[in-house]
Amino acid sequence: MKLKKFLLVSFFSLSVLWTFSSHASELDENVRTSEVSEKEKLFSEELDFAKKAVVKFYKNKDLGENNELDSYFSKDVLKLINYKVMYNNYKDKELDISYSKYNVVVKPVETEKWIKKGNSFSFNLQVITKFYYPQSDVESENSVVLEFTVTKDRDGKLMITRCYQALYSEVDELKYYNLLSKNADVDKWLSSNFEESKKYIEKSKNDREEDYRQYKSEKGCKDESIERYSSFNRQYITDWARNNFYKRSPSSSSSYVPYYDFSTISGSYDCTNFVSHALLAGGFSMNDYGYSGIQGSNQWYFRNIRNRSTSWSGVSQLYTFLTRKSNLYTGPSATEKYFNYSNSYLGDVIQVYYNGSGWGHSVVVTKFKNGNVLVTGRTAPNWYNNNVDARRMGNYQRLLHLENR
Fold first, then answer.
1. Is 153 exposed, middle or buried (0-12, 13-18, 19+ CB in 10 A)?
2. Kind and range of the H or E element at 13?
3. Do residues 308 and 350 make contact, with C-beta atoms less than 8 angstroms apart?
4. How much is the average pLDDT of 215-243?
5. Residue 379 to residue 362: CA distance in whole angstroms
6. The dihedral of CA 370, 376, 379, 380: what is its sign?
């Protein structure tokens, strides 16, 4: 009887604790939401101002419109903005890239990083561009995060005094702002960058024309399913990538490998970790000798953040592992091939954003449409690529064609 009474009391106590914990959790969430709302309310005027500027800027950059930007950006920031507009307009014209049903969505994000200092307001905005390529029924989408500083003068006039895109920009923005701080000749530097970029774009133009001839000769009948005699499943790689690129917390591609978001580490991003999980979903086995600590690119595995290989999450390290030429190892294998429509298959890895010394981003081939190779990837929460034309991403593309061992 005493045991029964003890169990009843214990159950009642646990129920009270669970109820209190549940309400506490709800209370914490309400407090968090309230804080976010209060911060957005505090920044409301500056947010609305920046959102209008972003929409006009992106329409100039991607659609070739001529919206007035002088009243939104300071003189120095406007030089960078105009460069990006000029670069993209030139590239799209040369590569014959255009869009239909184009839309720009701007959302406040990462409010915990927002700062108000005197008359300066610093905050982050997620910019989502949604569009279709010509004669395509596939919606494409890009998402990036921009860091803004909006300053209000004594008369209450607003001006964007900093607009910064940390990754995948048309130009090295960190260097641009560093040069500004040193009063260097940024006009000369931007001009030199543009002339150099034109050479790469011209090469991409010739490659694209050859791709389209190849596409027409094949009558658009590209085999999007699997390669003959494939022991891995290309469709599984694609399906996992398509189901997870937009998620704040992607699902693990294996019950024994947790998904750890590398973008939570300062100075790191999640793109290659995302690709590794996609490859794992396709049926590839990890290459793990069982050592402890961080191992090099001669292995490919992830157990936890302290026990993993650099090839699991590093762009250049994954390249080294995939292209190794030895039959002694397990795990995925690939051959670097000239990037074009004919050489690309579903699930293949493409690396982009070459800066002259290294590659900055890894993505997965997820679609073919009208001679275009479309890719999907994830960089961090709010940063992703959704069936985007690989040639739109930087000046160079490096194709890693997956193969059997």
1. exposed
2. helix 2-42
3. no
4. 75
5. 9
6. positive
Could you tell me which residues are beta bridge partners of residue 103?
130
- Dig out the tokens for 401 from the structure: 């064609």
Would you call 48 exposed, middle or buried from its count of C-beta atoms within 10 A (0-12, 13-18, 19+)?
Answer: exposed
Q: What is the mean pLDDT of the chain?
A: 87
CB 223 within 8 A of CB 243: no
Task: Please write the tens of the pLDDT for every residue from 180-208.
Answer: 999 999 999 999 999 998 988 888 888 77
Q: Distance of CA 46 to CAs 18, 51, 77, 322, 396, Å? A: 42, 9, 16, 47, 37
What residues contact 238, with CB distance under 8 A and at least 6 apart? Answer: 278, 346, 347, 364, 365, 366, 376
Indicate the pTM of the whole model. 0.86
pLDDT tens digit string along 123-160? 999 999 999 998 889 999 999 999 999 999 999 999 99
What are the backbone dihedrals phi and psi of residue 258, each rounded to the nearest 5 degrees, phi first? -70, 150
Rounded to 5 degrees, what angle do the CA atoms 194, 359, 189 make?
25
- State whether residue 118 is helix, strand or coil: coil
State how far Cα 5 lies from the chain centre. Answer: 58
Measured distance CA(336)–CA(330) in Å, rounded:
18
Element housing 352 (H / E): strand 349-354
- Contact present, 75 and 163 (Cβ < 8 Å): no
Predicted pLDDT of residue 33: 47
